[in-house]
Amino acid sequence: MKKVFILITLIFLLPNCSFAQSMDEQMFQSICMNLIHQDSFNTIAQKLKNKVVLVADPVSGYQWIKYIDTSDSKTTTVFDSYSKNDRINILSGQSFPYLPLADTIYIVDTNGFLNNEYSFESGGHFFKIALHNYDLYGIGDGNKMKYKKIYKQFVDNTNTRHLFLHRVRMYQNLLTLSFVFIRQIDGEYKFPFKLKSCELILGKPGYSDSLFYFLD
């Protein structure tokens, strides 16, 4: 029912577009590519630990990059090839809780929003949507019992991680997908998508310390 409402809203907002039918795949691929991007930044950041630091003026907030050790010229050359904004993002750290990325990442749809078991592979990482019979557990936004039963069917390890699609919200032209994790953190990790010119443009994802707790 929620997806039907969102589709109707999309058609109303963008009457001349037919992209709504493929928005599942668009969002899925955007999420995958963003996580791979974060992972690549994290890889560089780990190599630059104690060698390059981000310094900020406590009054103005102005940030600049300070080189402490440039002996690893190969890594610093790669780092310098990025724009200043990207270099700041690399040093300031990424917000996704599962970095470095596992080899396999499953997006488990417990919300009944996605329709297809799409898959995506790049950079040695394999992503796949895992549909779930969510009707057995209820679909309430804060339904802890649903997750307490479902999470036992999935096992996280070094090579495999799971993201549970917990909440889908639409406000004006912003569509937000929120995820929770197995026993890792409280709150949600959100991917906001802005509707623009028949496309879903991914905004800045990040962790939100909401009132939802995965497990007591």
Question: Can you tell me about this structure?
Answer:
With about 220 residues, this protein is an alpha+beta fold. Among the domains are: about 25-90, no CATH class; about 105-140 and about 160-190, no CATH class. It has helices spanning about 1-15, 25-45, 75-80, 85-90, 145-150; strands at about 50-55, 65, 105-110, 120, 125-130, 160-170, 175-180, 190-195, 200, 205-210. Strand 8 and strand 9 (about 200) form a beta hairpin. The longest helix has 25 residues, at about 25-45. The chain is globular. It starts with a helix and ends in an 8-residue tail after the last strand.
Beta fraction: 25-35%
Instruction: Give the count of helical stretches.
Output: 5
Question: Uncertain runs with pLDDT below 50, 5 residues or more?
Answer: 135-141
Radius of gyration: 19 Å
Largest sheet descriptor: 8 strands, mixed
List how many beta strands DSSP finds.
Answer: 10
- Spatial separation of the terminal alpha carbons: 29 Å
Q: What does the overall shape look like?
A: globular
Give the proportion of residues in helices. 25-40%
Keywords: Signal
Signal peptide: 1-20
List keywords for this structure.
alpha+beta; two-stranded antiparallel ribbon; signal
List the helices and strands and how they pair.
Blueprint: H1 2-13, H2 23-47, E1 52-56, E2 63-67, H3 73-80, H4 84-92, E3 104-109, E4 119-122, E5 125-131, H5 144-150, E6 160-171, E7 174-180, E8 188-196, E9 199-202, E10 206-208
Parallel strand pairs: 3-5, 3-6
Antiparallel strand pairs: 1-2, 4-5, 6-7, 7-8, 8-9, 8-10
